[in-house]
Records
---
Amino acid sequence: MSENPQVKDILEHIETRERELADQAEQLRARIEELTRQLGEIDAESENLRITRKTLLTLPMPSPAAEPADIPDHPAYQQMR
């Protein structure tokens, strides 16, 4: 290391700043990893929804349900209508 006190101070400052930047970079890498995981989950769910939509659109339409001809007049049966 240099004998010059000014150079020594500058080098110490550089080392301190390098450690700070390394810490910040590690935090950002961890955040990127978490965001990448979340993005993968969202992409998978979106793909599942697209597949579901496509499947539903290819199914034949069901026939309308016919109402039974003779429903008893009892109130319980009327509520089920």
Note: The chain has two helices and no strands.
---
Amino acid sequence: MTASTTLSIDRLGRRGDGVARTAEGQTVLVPLTLPGEVVTGEIRDGRIAAPAIVTASADRVTPPCPHYADCGGCLLMHGSDGFVARWKADSVLTALAAQGIGATIAGIATSPPRSRRRAVLSGRRAKKGGTLGFHARQSDRIVDIHSCHVLRPAILAALPALRDLVAAGASRTAELVLTVTEGPAGLDLAVSGGKPLTPALSQTLAAVAEAADLARLDWDGVPMTRRAPVQRMGRAQVIPPPGAFLQATAEGEAALRAVVRHALKGAARVVDLFGGCGTFALPLAETAEVHAVEGLAAPLAALDQGWRKADGLKRVTTETRDLAARPLLADELQGFDAVVIDPPRSGAAAQAAQLAALRDGPTRVAWVSCDPVSFARDAKRMIEGGWRMDQIHVVDQFRWSPHVETVTVFRRG
């Protein structure tokens, strides 16, 4: 039997685990802890999985969710709101400092509890019905949730019906992935990994869609639409493809969009890179011509249809292009006044290199990021190319998780 070890938590790592060191210099990860706390527990594989708190931090609070001890959906609910906000801001500054970049934080916009309008749930068929929720920490086991302090009330209300869907549509071995999004028309649900459709299963799914009042249910690419699952983007109404990426909360989207619109005010021609369904392109089209570039054709088709049906927008064009493999070259960017870019977590190294090479053309780049480390890498390349970086706006849409988003502006000339 391994003896317990007592350790002091030095800091939190990128994934929200406490980081401590043994007397021998071994780094140990300790979940659900805060800096300055003294903990004890058994070390296995460099981790104390179930720490006992000996001395608690003044920032420790009682998590309000009954699933928190087991569910992996939230990792920082034991920290005060003030602590989590400071830690997220500091994580951005730390990533930038590692690249030799000094920066200041303009502020942090934290989405309120129960504001997640989009979530990816997991489901498995069980002996008695279905299990539906998020994975447990460090596990592929699904925690069956019946309440949640993150999800919007409409999604919570639909959980019993979605659990019935899992029971009916999951095989004995496969895990269902359920992407659910709330919109003005109701819930939009895309399910992957389910059993093949049969007349009987189709009838059951239709009953579930009725019980949950779903706007659309997409079963492994087969849509069952009761109402058009529109999302509002500025003056436009867009019908995203099933399971499409959208900002996680309306409040977070508004915070990001406000910074982008203010930064690009007065621009006549804007290029929107990694444009998706039009989160930024369509609101910007109220005052500027926009060229939206995205690697997937389906989101761009939805953007285009939304633009064509909206009133009072300037011209919007689209281009399907893998920007990681084929970034817009410096000479292709010449005809634009400004750029907005919202890359995936891997960042936009290739596109940053082309932006850094610019000597004419756009003088402003609004850069939205969902990963501080890849952003810091790309920011270094931009600064090396002569761009100046404004203050950083931190946006916390994923409350109580380690995930953090930023938006800033690079200026040239």
Note: Residues 81-98 form the longest helix (18 residues).
